[in-house]
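Protein record
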Amino acid sequence: MRPAAPYLRAAAALPATAFSRAGVVELYHLRYEQVERDGLSRVLVQRVFAIRTAFGAQSFGPDDFWYDASRWSFHLVHGAVISPRGRRVAVTDGGDANPDAEGEHDRILHFPALRPGDRINIIYALTPVASAAWRRSGFGYIGDLFAFRGNYPVQRVRYVLRSPRPIAATAVRVAAASQRRSGGQFISDWSGGPYRPFWREAGGPSITDASPYVQTGAFLHWKGLAGWYNQKLAAQARLSPAFRSRLLHLVPRQPTPLATVQAVWAYLARRLDYWGDESGLHAFLPSPPGAVLALGRGDCKDGALLMTAWLRAEGVPADLALIRTWSMGAVANGAATMAAFDHAIVYVPGLRLWLDTTAPRLHVGELPATDQGALALIVRPGESRLVSVPILPARANRLVQSFRLTPAGPTLWRLTGRITADGMRANRLRAQYANPAARRALFASWLRRRFPGVRLASLRVSGAAWADARAQIVFTAAVPRADLPNPAAIPTAVFPRHFAQRLAADRQRRQSLRIPTRWSLATRWSAPVSHCQTAPPVRLTAPYGRLEIRRLCTAGRLHILLNVAQTGETISAGQYAAFRAFWRNADARMNQPLPAPARSVLAAAHAQPAPAAAPAVPAGVSSRPGRARSAMDPAGLHPARLH
């Protein structure tokens, strides 16, 4: 393959680049792929770098080379550092950064001490693995996505695809390929440059959202891929009469399709452990359902195929859906490639339900954040387009907290409370309180964040096991009055909230921000007071969030009600400053007492009542009643595996 590849034999003679301020510049990046008749491919890669500054010499990474170990083995063909005077020092292969991992790998190459003026010439080959199993399966050509931008500014990028039969290809933001036939081979050649480097900000666009790329596959459209993969899954999911009968007796017969889905999910969620396998063909094709159930573990596609086959046996139509999680970015509506997807879940069309077997602590109708907003190809005959997995509303991920304070003698308060969680909030609570033996100490530690001397009297946790419908904590505790001399001065949120730090930690952004989950929080604080006045609500509203604080006074008690919700999905770079200011403002209001003339019964014993005053309403905040509305490398495009 090397004699046929258009690699540069005189890397040291490449012209200087226009990127004068860059510490490292990639002068040339070649990817030459030879597809064989069985669909396997061999790849030759050449990358030539120029070290421009001392900082560039120090920062050049030894792990800037990656490959997909489920498809290929890595072979360093040539590696040399060339000094300005022509002296050459060999680059050596240090093996995989994580030898025990499967799928995508960073390859460690060892370089000598680098200096400004050095050029680095790396040539490596990727040869197919599991060739015999691949050929027997007839799985064919997987396809690929190759991005033209990377960690460093690049002067010229070239992608050459050579095959004995035509390969479907879609170029995005890249000039159309030159095509020719030679020696019975179809050859497509794309090139471009120069390109600035791409670094993805946290939550920002992925490489396919920002870089030119070429998408290749065995099918011109998604319909072909869906039909072909459906046939492969049907062969894997064929159930023997004995196994089918066994499945139908594992859960009682249910009266409705939804009840059937819930019963099957209840059984699997407690008995199927996640175990990733990205080796060879299994990186793309799940194991038979009988083997997965017998083993009691599997990865995303194993669990999805098992549940799909089981629901169909129960008479509930269901499909496996290939998923491109939202962090992977966009994909073209053109050449259909298995490399576009990194996950698999279940879709029940009659109920419009999506289920992820790798998230056993979530209930039917709930989804991990990485699934929401993802692109999906539902694997069934005739499916011709990608669809978006729904993004759940804020109320689907809701946390409700209620705290009530009453006197319990001259030195103590009695604190009672109830915490209820749904969706991802419940998932987090279940994970925290899964161990019954650790629950009491864990919850007491949380209470001490606000009340240092608290003594927990009783605790009841329900819904920590996945089968319960709702995660809930009910408790009673004793709080020293010294910890809380004035319960009317408690912060509005009761416990500290730092949403700005979580949602908008960066001072500024150059890229848009994708927020994976909408959520809502409601907190109620009730405490005895000797004097109180109901005040108009305080509201903050924005397209991406809302905050409402209300103070009510009834029968000698103060009630502070807080409702906050994150409702945004994507925040543009232009919106980010206002978005950050909104959450910093919201945090400030939640973490301090609501300005209000209210005093506790303890404070009343030491002071005379003062006249009530209207609460301050900061400028720009309405006080009127009314309604108010995670593995892609940041610089490379790793072909996805279904894990």
